[in-house]
Amino acid sequence: MRANSDIISFEQITKEEPEKVEELSELASRIVKEHYDPIIGPEQNDYMIEMFQSPQAIREQLEHGYQYYRVRRSDVGPIGFMAMYKRENEWYISKLYLDKQYRGRGYSKAMIRHASQLGREAGAEVLTLNVNKRNSSVEIYERLGFTRIRSEVNDIGHGYVMDDYVYSLPIE
Question: Which of 12, 172, 161 is nearest to 85 (CA)?
Fold first, then answer.
């Protein structure tokens, strides 16, 4: 798959690969920390990283049907990751992140294309995702054709909430 003439690939991570789960957790924690500390603060972000991106959390998600992919660029290695799962007729994108230096280069579009293909193969009709209302990625999802379908606030414990928009995109 090409994004701005750089070859990228998607490497699926499975629960049978504990060393890759550890590496994925480190990559995810680094990217999420850099991106979300300014948005939600380091305390909430650290709590959420432990809840959702620790090796144990990733293993549990894999046990419950999540598909995790490490996004690799041929010349530099891992540059991001994504996680998805099917719920009813939706292919839910739970996580879609890129290292800061690779944003704005067309990789998100390639990641959404890959997610659409996986969703289609799983029999889903629509991609859905949540995005923090203050996340700059809101504009990117809209440019990629996603439609905002609602707002929601989810209590995640310890006095923290996720204040999100929910977006959808029909799978073609």
Answer: 12
**R_g (Cα) of the chain, nearest Å:** 15
What are 17-75's pLDDT values in tens digits?
999 999 999 999 999 999 999 999 999 999 999 999 999 999 999 999 999 999 999 89
Helix and strand counts by DSSP (H, E) for the chain: 5, 8
* Integer CA distances (angstroms), 11 to 79, 93, 121, 143, 153, in order: 11, 16, 17, 26, 32
Q: pLDDT (tens digit, 9 = 90+) per residue, 70-119? A: 999 989 999 999 999 999 999 999 999 999 999 999 999 999 999 999 99
54, containing H or E segment:
none
CA 37 from chain centre, in angstroms, equals: 16
How far apart are alpha carbons 92 and 85 in whole angstroms?
A: 5
According to DSSP, the β-strands at 77-87 and 160-170 are unpaired
Q: Report the 3 state secondary structure along 67-134.
A: EEEEEEECCCEEEEEEEEEEECCEEEEEEEEECHHHCCCCHHHHHHHHHHHHHHHCCCCEEEEEEECC
Between CA 153 and CA 91 the distance in angstroms is 21
